[in-house]
Amino acid sequence: MDWQAIGLSIRLATATTAILLVVAVPLAAWLAFSRRRWTVLVEAVVALPLVLPPTVLGYYVLVALGSRSPLGRWWEQTVGTPLAFSFTGLLVASVLYSLPFAVQPLLASFAGVDRRLVETSAVLGRGTAATVLRVVLPLSRAGLATAAVLTFAHTVGEFGVVLMVGGNIPGETRTVSIAVYDAVQAFDYATAGRTSLLLLAFSLLVLTATYALQRRGQVPVWPRP
To answer: What pTM value is reported for the model?
Structure first.
């Protein structure tokens, strides 16, 4: 079993979850409470990774992070290493790919908060940020936990985007899903079986936790496309 790949996947999933929770809370709050007509377009863009093939998303991210793009050139000139085929590039791709798994549970949970509480907070002089932090978020703990669990699990199981953007560099971009693929390609079915069994148990644990959170907070398990 490739413990290095497992450790890298956990590190990637932890970093992705932490970043997305910071990004998803204000984004989901804006989508839930905004009355602008073009909000639906933003919501569709956020949900795009749910229906877009991972290889397509991975291709566009790879082009955006490559050395020929402005971002890729700036990063390489500043840091001295390429952004594509690195852990940082892999993190950027994972954040984009897992974005709907963080936003949609929060959006559903925020939308379920009694609007009268939000309006009362506004009447008392609380701004939007204060209302979200002090009223909406405490009432959406189940949604927040669901978003964290789904984002972490989804990142651990990534394959197509990871392979396109990060490649297969041991200790740098080689995740556990790629390790399973490599083991099968090398006809090492024993290792592939043990790693797959570990992922199966992890997935079952995640689903059990998610359904438990759904029962407590009535949060939809799967993000809506």
So the answer is: 0.84
Give backbone dihedrals phi and psi of 222, rounded to 5 degrees, phi first: -105, 140
Count CB atoms within 10 A of the CB of residue 171: 10
Amino acid at 224: R
* Per-residue pLDDT reduced to its tens digit, 161-216: 988 998 888 888 899 999 998 889 888 989 889 989 988 898 888 888 777 776 76
Question: 101-121 b/e with 16+ CB inside 10 Å = b?
Answer: bbbbbbbbbbebbeeeebeeb
Structural domains of the chain ordered from first start: 3-217 (1.10.3720.10)
C-alpha distances in Å from residue 125, one per residue of 121, 184, 204, 219:
7, 61, 45, 29
Torsion, Cα 96 101 106 111, to 10 degrees, reads: 100
